[in-house]
Amino acid sequence: MAEKAFNPFEMAQKQFDAVAEKLGLDQGTRDLLRNPSRELHFTIPVRMDTGSVKIFRGFRIQHNDSRGPGKGGIRFHPHETIDTVKALATWMTWKCAVVDIPLGGAKGGVICDPRELSDREQEQICRGWIRQVSKMVGPFNDVPAPDVMTHGQHMLWMMDEYEVISGGKRPGFITGKPVGMGGSLGRTEATGYGVIYTVREAMKQLGIDIKGATAAIQGAGNVAQYSLDLFTQYGGKVIAIACWDNNDKVPYTYRCKDGIEFEKLMGSIDKYGTIDPAKAKSYGWEKLPGDAWIEQDVTVLIPAAQENMINSENVNKIRPSVKLIAEGANGPTTPEADIVIQQKGIFLIPDFLCNAGGVTCSYFEQVQCNMNYFWEKEEVLTKLDQKMTAGFKAVSSLARDKKIYMRDAAYMISIKRVAEASHLRGWV
Ligand code: GLU
Known about the structure:
Elements: H1 2-5, H2 8-23, H3 27-33, E1 38-47, E2 53-64, E3 70-77, H4 82-98, E4 105-111, H5 119-133, E5 142-146, H6 152-166, H7 187-206, E6 214-218, H8 222-233, E7 237-244, E8 251-255, H9 262-268, H10 277-282, E9 286-289, E10 300-303, E11 324-326, H11 335-344, E12 347-349, H12 351-354, H13 357-371, H14 377-402, H15 406-424
Parallel strand pairs: 3-4, 3-5, 6-7, 6-10, 10-11, 11-12
Antiparallel strand pairs: 1-2, 2-4, 7-8, 8-9
The structure holds glutamic acid (GLU).
Glutamic acid (GLU) binds next to strand 3 and helix 13.
C-alpha cells in the first residue's frame, strides 16, 4: 500500500538528489543539504487534568540556516514522526529561498492530539516545548510559528515562556501571534491568499479566466479557508471541500455545485478544521466519501491539508477537466503520483512555492516586531502579493525556458541559492 510505505523525508531527499544531480553539485554540498544540520528530540512531562503525569515527545529540527535564522512551524499531531518533521524542515529551507526571504529552514512538532486536550494541558505542552528548545531558538537563531493544529494562542504561551526564560520582551522570537500581541495583520489570510496569488498568475499564463473557474479543495483548515475566500473573491467557485470528521474519525468531502460560501464555511467549522455535519446538511451540501474531492470535474485542485494526499491510488481519478494543481499543503503529492501528473500535462504549482505566503508574512511579522512598528493590512497583503508573484514568475520562466516541470524549476532556484550561501560562508 502506497500510504504505508510513504516516508516524507525519503521523498524530500529523493527530490533533492535528483536536482543536485542536474545542478552538478559537489559531494560536500550534497551531503550538507540532504540532511538537517541539527536535531533535538526531547520529552515534555505534563500533569494532566486527571492528576496523573503524561510524557509527550517533542522535536525541533534545523535543516539549514546559511541564508538567515531558521524558520518554521510547530505541528501538534497524533501521527507526528521525526521523519515528517525532518522533511518539513528541509522544505522550509527551499520555501524561504524560493521567495527570496532571508531565512533558513526549521520545523518542530509534538506527538499529541490537541482535540483531546484541555486548554490548560495544551498550555503546559507549549511551555514545556519552549523549556526544552530555549537554548537553540531565538529571534536571531530560529523563529517558530504555527502549523497543523497549532494557532495564535499556542504561539503566545510559547512567547511568554521564552520571555520568562530569556528575561526581556522578544516578540520577534515567534510568529503567528494574535494581532495586538505582536501579530501581523494579514497573517491569518496569508497562506491561503498566497496560494491563490500563484493560482491567479498560473491561470493568466494558461489563458484560463479565473472568473467562473471551479476548484476542489482537500482540507478545511486555515489554508483551505482563505484559499476558498480569495478564489471566490476573484470570481471562481469552490464546489467541493474535504475535511476530517472529529466524531467519525474519517475524512469526508462536502460538495455544493453552486459554490461553497466562505461565510457558511466559517460558520460551520471548528478550530481544527472539522465541519459540523448538521450545519452542512442545513446548507444543502452533499456528503461524499473522503477521496471524492479529487474526482470532481473542476479546473483547479488544491490539496491544502497534509502529506500523501495525491498518491498512486487516487491520482488516476483526476478528471481531464483539471488543468492546474496548486499544492497548498506541504508534500501532498507522492513521487509516483507526480510522474502521472507530469504525463497528464497538468500545470503544477509546487508546495514550497505555492504555500510560501505563510512564512513570507511571518517574515513581515518578524520585521514589524523587531521595529516595533506595525503596518496596515493592505500594506502587508500588497507586499505579500509582490513576493508571491515574483517567486511564481521566476519559477515559471525557468520552467518555460528550460522546458522542465515546475517542481524541478522551483527546486533548482532554491537549492542553487542555498548552496551558494553555504559556499560563501565557507561551509562547503
Ligand atoms: N507552518 C507554515 C509553513 O509550513 C508557516 C511557517 C512560518 O510561518 O514560519 O510554511
